Amino acid sequence: MSLVEPGSLFTFEQLYRQYLSCRKGKRNTYNALRFEARQELNLLELAEALQERSYRPSSSVCFVTQRPKMREIFAADFKDRIVHHVLVDELERYWDPVFIHDSYACRRGKGIHQAVARLRQFIRQGSYNGQQRLWYLQLDIRNYFMSIDKAVLFALLKPHIDNVETLWLTKLLVFHDCTEHFTYKGRPGLLQQLPAHKSLLQAPPGKGLPIGNLNSQFFANVYLNALDQFVKHTLKCRYYLRYCDDFVLLSQDPQQLSHWREQISRFLAEHLLLELNDKREKLRPVSDGVDFLGYIVRRDYLLVRRRVVNNLRGKLRSFEAQLVKQRQYYRVYRYEEPLVEALAGSLASYLGHLSHADSFALQNRIWREFVFLEQYFQIDETQQKLIRRHWVTNGFRTVLGQYRCFRGFFTSDVLFFQVGRFIEFYGEADQAIAELLGLKRMADNRRGALWGFPIKQARYYLRRLLKAGFPVVCIVETGLYLGVSQVRKVVCRVAPVVCQ
Length: 500
Prior knowledge:
Blueprint: H1 12-22, H2 30-37, H3 39-51, E1 60-65, E2 71-75, H4 78-98, H5 112-126, E3 135-140, H6 144-147, H7 150-157, H8 164-175, E4 182-184, H9 190-193, H10 214-234, E5 239-243, E6 246-251, H11 254-272, E7 282-285, E8 290-292, E9 295-297, E10 302-304, H12 306-323, E11 324-326, E12 330-334, H13 337-355, H14 360-369, E13 377-380, E14 385-388, H15 399-409, E15 414-419, E16 422-425, H16 431-437, E17 451-454, H17 458-467, E18 472-482, E19 485-496
Parallel strand pairs: 1-4, 15-18
Antiparallel strand pairs: 1-2, 3-6, 3-7, 5-6, 8-9, 9-10, 11-12, 12-19, 13-14, 15-16, 16-17, 18-19
Helix pairs in contact: 1-3, 1-4, 4-8, 4-10, 7-8, 10-11, 12-13
């Protein structure tokens, strides 16, 4: 391996630090696991390739997302994402202090909710607590990522880079064409359904950045920083904020906003080779509410955008169709771990979004509309988080402790609780069920089990209980141990139609 000077951007230590940052939240993905299998060797090889300038980005994976709208995504290889983190971390040292305060996309300490809160603050300040009428101008760039000119972008970056390694890597990534070699994953024909102006594959030479990469998001911020400086320092707009290519200006004079709009349009065309999206343009009083980043922003309250709520309902209907199976006389709630995991992640994300708005009534309506959610989760009102009902917590290391934990979740159900080759009952409250099934009381045992039957008879007893109107929760051993006891989880809940 070649020797490097102190302070080099491509040291093993630097790559390892960015590797740890890159794998956060993605450690269980296929690419991350494959890289981790020979982590040190991969990092050494990557460091050497960067130091010798022989590094070239690998093929990307292309796919199309359909919600909230159709987008073409080019996902970089895990190795390349580490390089993106290295470069962005280095460039941010100069650019983050240069960005205006009210640029909110892909910056530390910023984000959607900070941008929305700042807009509400602007509305209150600009309207003098409702005493003065305030107007807003909302603008958007037409096909922003596909319209970014790489030569202009590099011209903006180059004067502020004094390190030869950084300059080489910046030029390589700016002008890299990910459409030359890529793998498509997804439904056949979906890529062809994408409008031409939304695809890098149809972009003119030298135009467009791939959506989905960290460096693209950072480059997009740098590109529109020129606009931010123009609006703040030339137009002298006091109330202005931007999230990616969606930006809002506020004023008490709608004529001034119209004048600013024309100046912004000329600036974008002359300096950044961009156009405004006329279809997304709005000039209205703020009393109408500002549709911004998934919320309807008003001076005194915040609502969730209707499209966000409809997307949530669509996702929940999809999960319900996969998890809940309706039969003639009973209903089966399945607890397949990957599906429940995906449901938990999606639901938590939407509830987090809703929690920033005045949405108490909306959240209650969602839970009433999708009753099946109560089979899988409870909401911790104090910490505003989901509690899963189907996996016992780590604090219960005994069989009896696990049984009591599940009994706390499913207070009115019959628990088919597996212990080895038997189903066992542990509480005196189960005596009526034991008598119904004709079970004899067991001899004293260390576990505290009172009744039971062989697991091979479970279907027979399940049918009897359903006929009698009792819902049944099936709890099985997982093969994982805490101390001397196996961890158990729910695999399904079977409920008669009259006992939903």
